[in-house]
């Protein structure tokens, strides 16, 4: 793992981008990033991501900043800018991984919300496209993080969770962490679990 993986969401139009900005933060958290940096006018999205982290576990940090350009230019590590105009993710993912994950160098992943100024392209070590087609920045971030971590983020265990979602074929099952540990330990020991979802 890298020293730190940070996702920066550039640009936010209150009212119009609230859901998308929130989903950038939630995707960053769920798929292995350590922190998300949101524009300072995205307070509602920040609170939602913090609430999810409080309930479903961390660690994960949410930060609001108004100096996103200087933050990116001053980043001491590798900068990846996700854009449909970049190099294909499948062509550069190994290089990005070598420059960050393998070398324990902090990684900043920039995800645009509105028109991204050209200086972000210039500040990036890699401008990376996921399919080079128009689609959601949330989808691009999810694919990039999964490729970066090679699927290892899907096995992550969460600290200080108030609730845990237990995977099952049908239904929804949310339990407290102690019950989840007991069920996992029982499964490891070969104990049958006859419970069903509701």
UniProtKB/TrEMBL annotation:
PANTHER family on file: TRNA (CYTIDINE(56)-2'-O)-METHYLTRANSFERASE (PTHR42197:SF1)
Basic and acidic residues composition-biased segments: 170-187
Binding partners and assembly: Homodimer.
HAMAP family: tRNA_methyltr_aTrm56 (MF_00077)
Gene Ontology CC entries for this record: cytoplasm
Organism listed in the record: Halobaculum roseum
Protein's cellular compartments: Cytoplasm
Chain spans, region Disordered: 169-198
EC number: 2.1.1.206
Main location: cytoplasm
Catalytic function, reaction form: cytidine(56) in tRNA + S-adenosyl-L-methionine = 2'-O-methylcytidine(56) in tRNA + S-adenosyl-L-homocysteine + H(+)
Name of the protein this chain belongs to: tRNA (cytidine(56)-2'-O)-methyltransferase
Record has tRNA processing as a keyword: yes
């Amino acid at each position: 793992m890298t020293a730190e993986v940070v996702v920066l969401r550039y640009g936010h139009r209150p009212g119009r981008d609230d859901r998308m900005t929130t989903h950038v933060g939630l995707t960053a958290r769920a798929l292995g990033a350590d922190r998300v940096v949101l524009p300072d006018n995205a307070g509602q999205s920040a609170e939602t991501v913090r609430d999810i982290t409080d309930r479903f576990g961390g660690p994960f940090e949410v930060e609001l900043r108004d100096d996103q350009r200087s933050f990116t230019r001053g980043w001491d590590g590798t900068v990846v800018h996700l854009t449909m105009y970049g190099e294909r993710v499948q062509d550069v993912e190994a290089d990005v991984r070598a420059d960050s994950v393998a070398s324990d160098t902090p990684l900043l992943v920039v995800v645009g919300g509105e028109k991204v100024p050209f200086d972000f392209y210039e500040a990036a070590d890699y401008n990376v496209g996921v399919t080079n087609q128009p689609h959601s920045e949330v989808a691009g971030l999810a694919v990039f993080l999964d490729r970066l971590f090679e699927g290892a983020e899907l096995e992550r265990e969460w600290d200080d969770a108030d609730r845990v979602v237990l995977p099952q074929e049908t239904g929804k099952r949310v339990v407290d962490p102690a019950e989840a540990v007991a069920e996992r330990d029982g499964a490891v020991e070969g104990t049958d679990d006859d419970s069903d979802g509701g």
